Amino acid sequence: MKSTADADLLSGILRFQARKQILCGLIFFFSLSAFAQDRLAPSIEWKELPNSQFVVVFPEGYEHQAGEIAHTAVRQYKLLSELWKVSIESRIRLLLAPDSDVAGGSITLFPFPAIRIDMAPPSPDSRLSGGKEPWLDKVLAHELTRLLLLHKSSGFFKHLRRGIGPLPFTFPMMQYPSWVHEGLAVFSESLICPSGRLNTPDFRQMFQHIASEGGFQHFLSLRGSPSRWPGPVTKFIYGAEFFRFLGNHYGQESLQRLVTHLSRVPISLGISLRFKHVFHQRLRKLWRQFGLAAGQTKRSDIALRPLTHDGWIKQYPEIVDNEKLIWVSNNYRSRPGIRILDRRTGKSAWLLRRWGISSLAYDFRHQQVVFSAPEVFRSFRWISDIYSCSTAGGECRRWSRGKSLFHPHPFPDGSGFICVSRDHDRFRLARLNVPLSEPVMLSGKYVGLAHPRVSPDGKKVAVAIKQRHKDWSIALFTLAGELESIIHLPEKRCSVPRWLDNNHLVFVLSGQENSTIAMANLSNRRVQVLTGLHSPGIRYLAVPGNDCLLTVFLNAGGEDLAEIHLHESQWTDLPADWFPAQARPQPESIAPSRSYNKWRDLAPRFVSPDGSYVEKELQIGARVSGRDLPGSYDYQARVLYGLKTQRWNTDMRLMLGGFFPRVTLTWRREHQVLENRIRGDFIQTNAFLNLEAQFPLKVRRQYRWDLAVGIHVNRIQDRSILHDPDETVKLNGFSLTLICDSDQRYYDAFTRTDGGRFVLMTSWDVALWGSSPVRSLALDWRRYISLRHPNVLALRMAVAHSWGEAPRVFYMGGASAQGRAGLVEGRLFSLMRGFPAGYASGFGGWQFNMETRLQLLKIERALPVGPSFERLYMALFCDIGNMWTQRLRFSPMFTWGAELGVLLYLGGSVEVALGMAVNRSLPHNPTIYFRIGESF
Hints:
It is built from 13 helices and 52 strands. The protein has about 950 residues and is α+β, with helices and mostly antiparallel strands. It is globular, with a radius of gyration of 30 Å.
């Protein structure tokens, strides 16, 4: 018995064909297209403003912003190219995206270098805010540095990019950890921008608290998505502070030499030796010196009474009553939202789960929470609106729809809310009286407005204000929106104003070193600052009483709530400027522009190598593709040669998204080998032409409903390898697909960890051009359940049936699942590990997959394999399924086994898995297989 089992195991291993698998993996990585971006609204009229190095693409109405950004980009490009000794031959595209109320930026490498900036100015509590110069300078410098550093390489890779295009493997810098790229980008932005994140207290305070309280992390734990505080910005903080440390101790020229050396290594098996080449010390030793040199924080002289101890992110605390507090909470491991704390018991609970809450206030008159949060509006726009929520049951009510409103605060008489309205990149005070009404604009337009608060007597409004070429200050308005005065403190940033009474105002005051609390006396125009509050850094304020303040402070584990008693504190005078009301700014000049030339960007540029692995067959070939910058149009044509079938496969796709709905034209002719238990091995040829229109029914941050309508012409030919007569089926008709996506992939998760996907598809094939009338119905349901983060339980259920004169045949067997779209024309039941592809067939069937994914370790921390290897995980699975022909039969096949998966980062996240499956019916057990991509 033992010898038989060993022979079966050896047979399974020999069937693995390791050489083809490795070659397939390399070609797959080489063919990746980097950094696709979200689609923008098709109704936007795009214009462009070109210069010698950039093409700024912007929507109509942003002419002034485009002119300023074009000028800034040329200046920053010159500084950064001289700093890092690198240049980009082609002109860089700069896309100004107006459809989001969340500030940020991103880069794209394929098919041309491009930077996207979301044109929503940040509030003063954002880490992108601060400084006299525009916040766009900081974002642009950061993204431009990333783009330049990725393009830095030897002459060989530059010539290779000219020939086959900017594929990931032609960028040597891409193989290094993200903390290297992001750290160098923050370091560069801080060199050329006075308000860069290394020049503001936010990053410094977080880093100093972490280092001084024993939470300093090893560089190997920064790879991928570290789960410890401060979460997503961990790589930014550690990377930037580390490179600043190297620059201070070894000179800035050493960083230039390091970048040059990193960019000339085609394949790096470890990053530590790269540092030794430049600094004559391994990275481990340099990192140890960096940890010892990490600054110590100044201890606060003022007594803080902590109310919470769980850390992570806490924002916008508010007082509900003497016993309850609320705030916005986020730990990046689950859905964020609003939490409520009962001070009597010390226990907190979720009041509301919601993404992106950007402000919070409490309406005492109506006993409800009011907040602003972005939501998808008209399927494309990520727009902030105002909502209210009852503290009793958590019922949520919407007060505006698609109005770009922020920071609501109730009027004392309960007549509505004061809020901030965004128009392009300017802000105005507004009033919202009743739900879903038009907001009434009160003030003129300013560079920034945030955190408005109405005085207790209802006569004044205090708000944080940003003026051109000045830092954030505190402004006083009348209820009619007339500006009375501005409190400005030189070289300081003021935010989060709160009323103590009708004459006293407190706010957060941030300098170069720390953040503290200031108080303004309106009657004698006197500003005082709280002394002795060196650390922790203050970020938010709330006023539970005239003698007490509620604040959020930093510690090594995140942010927590604490109380500060005013009668126990000392205040000192601080010089301040009280400016009277100023005249409204003059209209800004508009730079000349022209209509955006999408045909120039759509023109094919490169013929790139391509490859895929379909059911144990390696296919290699080439691809030509392109897309316009806003993502309204794209196309792709692929030609691949199958080494096993010895046939050419073609795949062409054209997406027309410049109008509503999105239309996609697809032509595909593919050959694949199936090993059916009844018919034997045969080659299936599938020629498929489909015209599909996709209608977004309801799009939200947590889920999305789409309806797809398609017309298809399909010809399926089965050719036996034993030269039996060919069988040809013609299917011509149309399909209707309902899709719901709610799956989430949280920070620090190596797979989808929440939500799911539901697809219901029906197809009607009619008697046309020799085809037979056929009806088909298919269902695909997937669910992801978090099990002690980041581990996941994944479930999948697929059911399909067809009927008619010549029913459609479905095949079961294989180790990879069907793609995200298209069910009936594909193989819905391909995820049956342990059976050959196409092993079982029938006119209908069902399949259930259950998989437990367990993270084992971070590879680099345990085994220095290479910079691109990030995580190792194990999946235990069980697959059950059954196919039927004329009658429904229930004699399912079973397979179970385990996978060892590796998560890699190479132009994006890629999963590679090696698995072994055992079934109860095949003589060849176990079956060892290889997979690229997610299982389902």
